[in-house]
Each structure stands twice: as C-alpha cells, then as structure tokens.
Amino acid sequence: MTPQELEAVRARLETFAAEVFSCFARADQRRWGERYVRGLLTDGARKSMEPMAARLGVDRQGLQQFLTDAPWSHQLVLAELAWRMDTAINPAAWVVDDVSFVKDGEESPGVAPQYCGALGKTANCQVAPSVHLVTDVASCPVNWRLFVPEGWDAASPRTEDSAAVAARRQRARIPADITHVPKWQLALDMIDELCCWGLEAPLVVADEGYGQDGAFRLGLTERGIGYVVGVRSDTALLGIDAGRTVAPYAGTGRRPVPRYRDKPRSAQQIVTAAGRRALHAVTWRAGSKGPLRSRFVALRVRPAGLRIRRAHMGEDLPVCWLLAEWPPGESEPTKYWLSTLPADIPLRRLVRLAKIRWRIEHDYRELKTGLGLDHFEGRTWSGWHHHVTLASVAHAFCTLERLDPKVPAAV
C-alpha cells in the first residue's frame, strides 16, 4: 500500500491488530506487532528489518528485539487469526501446501539442499508447509510449520556428526523437541492443532506431494475428515467390483482367508480403459481470460497400495473417487485425484473442489511479492515463526478489506 492508502485504512488496521494481538501480555508488544504488520503492508522493495524500520520511523533494535527475542507465542496469534478468518471466510476447504525460501549459507534454521518449488529444482532453501482456509473468492494461511531436514536432526541415524549438528541447532535456537518429521505428518499436526483451536475441517485438499502418501490419506480418514488429494498416475487401485474371495481348501495346513486376488492397476490404466467416451466437459469457475473448462472422468475405485492394504487387513478396502483430467488434444490424462467425498456428489462440484488449490498460489504470490514473506534475514527458529505469523496477519487484513463491500477495491 502507498502511505496514503495505508493512512486511509489505519484505524481499521489498528482495530484488527488489537484483536489479533490481544493474547500479548504487554501493551508495548501489541504496539510493536501493529507496527511490524504496518511495515509489511507499506510499499517498499524490501520488507527486511532495516528498511522497514526506516520507512516506519521507528528504532530498528526495538523492532528486531520484538521479532527475534521477545517471548511471545506465535501459536496464540495464529489461533486468534484462525478464529477470526474462519468466520469471515466460511471456508469450503482447508488446503495443505508448502512454500520454499531460497537461502545462502547453512545457518538459517532448516536450510538444506532440497527440492525448491520456487525454482523448480533442488536448491539450498527452507521449506514450510502451511494450511489455508479457502473458498473460490478468498483464502488465508492460518498455520505454519518449518520443515526440519534430517541433516538438522542430531538424533537421526543418518547424521554423521551429531555434535556439529547440535551446535548448529543451538545457534539457530531450535527447541530440543523439534526433530525431523515428514511433511505429511507436519500437515496432520497442523490440522490437529486447528481442530484443537475449535475449528472444524469441511474437507482437506492437497496436491500429490501429500496425497500420494497413503499415511496422509489414512490419517485424514482416521480423523473423519474428507479429502480431495492429488496422486500420481501410477497409484495402485482396484476396480469397484473387486472383492475378497477364498481359495479352495486343500485339506492340509491353514485354511485360506478372504483376500483380494485381482491384480491392482494404475490410475492411468483404469482411466484409459474407461476411454474417452466416459469423459464429461466441466466448467468449474471463471478465470481471468474466461471460463475454465476441461474434460474429466470420475470412477469409483478401491485404493490398493501396501499401506492401505495393511491398515485394512481382514476388511474390505474402502471405496473412493478416482478423478482424472483428460484435456482435449492430450493423448492421455494429465492429472489424477483421489477423494472420499460422498458417492452422490455432482461431478462439477468434485472438480471445483479438486481445483480450489489455485487459491494457494494466489496466497503465496501475494505473501512473497507484496508482504515480504521471504524477506526475513534472521537465523533463529522463533524469529522465522514470528515473521511468517505476522505476514499472515498482514495478508488476513488485506483479505478482510477485499471482502468488505463498504471498502473501495484498493488493497
């Protein structure tokens, strides 16, 4: 925002900040919180500490101390934010995704050579899963985790120099109980935390980075949460008609038990076998260049991966939707999803929910290009979590301004 635009909304920003930062025990922390968010909202090429302090006309050391050293809980702030935004947005889904931060050096917490979505290749970066409340018209991140690679876990059996890792963790002030955890587990932890805060998940949407892992899908099912998640084309599946049968008893040894004897097929094989005649043209939303439209097929299947089979040992495998997109002109389907949404759900709604993940790219783009999400230059665990939390507060304020019909469309 320009200084003039920010001045026009300053009263609303101060009211919003007072509500979100009401968990701060001290008045000076509430003031610094509002100032930091104001700094993130103000126009400027860099949203790191020194240029922000200069634009705000405040003491840089005070701002630095509030962000890095002040003992305030980012979870309490995120809880306040989640409660407020859940009411304002009324989400159709919780979307799980992750964002990467390219870094130089080895001292920023969690930095390591790993896949960097921002560059589309392996690079030295941090990776952070997040959970967003989403509808077709609004969205907001309300929970974050910083991924800790195995190289940052002194207790990992793959760590060659545990003393050096422990020293690096101490410099980054990473708490002792923070260890390497797979991203899908971090996602489930965030979902559990949101539920503990009193929110109720309408359903969870994720790309194949999370959906491909059977443990993630099982975790959602165990929690009673429906999902639409991306999967790879080689995901093992059985047809809806597959059933458990018992082999004839030979008269010696253990009696045969019921089991699936059909050979699993890949998602690609099942959709290809259904053929182009099973496709339906679906328009799921209006895009910037006109209606978004493609061809889809939805089939009832049973997931047949090893983890799923083990979890349902002696039971029928669950039935779910296999959704595939097969655009005109393509020789084969291009995207696949599995979903536990009801059997009678209309195809258009199933497609719309699978595609609702587009809002996350909008959030990350706004957070990075406008609100300085990736401008944090500190090297501490708490500092990083404080910064992304305050960036989320700034993003939420922009979202509320856009949703308010009485506010001119300037945010």
From TrEMBL:
**Ranges where the Transposase IS701-like DDE domain occurs:** 19-291
Q: Which InterPro entries match?
A: IS701-like, IS701-like_DDE_dom, RNaseH-like_sf
Top-rank lineage group of the source organism: Bacteria
Q: Which residues cross the membrane?
A: none
* A Pfam family this chain is assigned to: DDE_5
Q: Which PANTHER family match?
A: TRANSPOSASE
What is the designated name of this protein?
Answer: SRSO17 transposase
**Species whose genome carries this gene:** Streptosporangium lutulentum
Lineage per the UniProt record? Bacteria, Bacillati, Actinomycetota, Actinomycetes, Streptosporangiales
